[in-house]
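Rotation project, supervised by the postdoc (A.L.). Task for the rotation student: set up a whole-complex structure prediction and record inputs and outputs verbatim in this book. Inputs entered:
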Amino acid sequence: MGGVARFWREIPQRYNLIGNKCEECGQVFFPPRESCPKCRRKSMGKIKEIKLTGKGKIVTYSIIHVGPEEFEEQVPYPIAIIQLDEGPRITAQIVDCDIHDVKIGMKVESTFRKIQQDGSTGAIYYGYKFIKRK
Amino acid sequence: MREVAVIGIGITKFGELWDKSFRQLIAEAGSKAILDAGIEGKEIDEMYVGSMSSGRFVGQEHVGALVADAAGFSHMHIPSTRVEGACASGGLAVRQGYLSIASGMNDIVVVGGMEKMNDVGGNDATATLATAADQEWEAFFGTTFPALYAMIATRHMHEYGTTKEQLAQVAVKNHANGAKNPYAQYRREITLELAMNATTVAYPLGLLDCSPVTDGAASLILCAADKAKKYTDKAIKIIGSGQGSDSLALHGRRDICTLDATVHAAKTAYKQAGITSKDIDFAEVHDCFTIAEICAIEDLGFVKKGEGGKAIDNKITTLDGSLPVNTSGGLKSKGHPVGATGVAQMVEVTQQLRGEAEARQLKDAKIGLAHNVGGSGATCVIHIMEAM
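Outputs recorded:
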């Protein structure tokens, strides 16, 4: 998967859901963008960091039965595309619920979890997963 | 802009080819195409080859030069370039060759596509295919490649009532066609029951909703259309070429169920050809998963959005339907050596238009379309072909 820096540099986004916002048109981006695809050069210097609430709902999902090596012990596990309340869509695991409860439209919120690790002695990588909103 | 024709085709057997190396496969496909076209090596102006990930599959990059070398052209110093766009690499190689002739720069170009996927184990092959997805924002969180298409399927079922049985029928149809194709990886029919009950890979997709891991190569000889008659009386003209891109991650798309890259590429290709989707007689579409074929026939304009499942029920896309799709068996049954796929689709369209498709030959097929997708839809390349 490459060096540790590759994960370390994404810590603000993955640990704290830091996105950004175009102050020209108000659109919110996650992961952060260098410029706004709509406002383009007008957005230069007007993109500001914001922390997302982590609240949203499921747009679509799958239950993974054959997982990548790093996730093999977790199968079957749900993965979903979540529409955050601020607008951006992100992909994440849905956890702490019966896999049969996962539905399109289900309200969810982000939670900080271990995502994977680099072998038994390598770095542990953290990030967001989502749980059913109470 | 000059018109471009296909004057030669070559394809290897698709499958688990343990006794064939990467370079043997592409040399075989290329040699067959050169012999079929009746050209000599010295007439080749340039070569373009598509490979998604030779570096990860066989530990070899720099395959543009390797292919020219394997074909015996190293002493001739023919320009040879590798093109990459995940599973659309082959279609992109064709388009580069097409553009170079259309521009007037070249007269004769060899295009090829290949992938040798079985030299690594299943986990490595799956991980390599996942590099077509967004590594940082999709794969890192545990998404697999089948799961991305599974999420398209879940949403399609939710919005349009598409059923698991309709998905399975796509696989049944493509296996029935593949059984008639001597180059196909799986030359056997499957039952609906088998497809429906296959082990789940990523709900709602089962094993028989997924295309396999395949070794194989394919090649085309492209020629300026006004010079094609010198070589063959069965040249097939490329009347439209379109390409589109979209967000790398599925979650970044305007609509989960629509591949806007396909819509864009199709619009460009139809416009260039001066036709509409209604003029297409048959198509090879990118059915890496069964849901992908349903989305493709919608996004290409063959049926309305959401009616792809019904089109399967109504048998529109079978070999004897009004718009046969994937007469070769598609990626599902013919096999999916990723870099070769886009080129192999055009080999099939050429065979149909020449009347050389044997047991799967269509009657009165005049205009065919090849639709090649990279990743979950971030790249799409389309070519429309017509007999001259």
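Student's summary: The mean pLDDT of chain A is 95.
Supervisor addendum: The longest strand of chain A covers residues 107-117.
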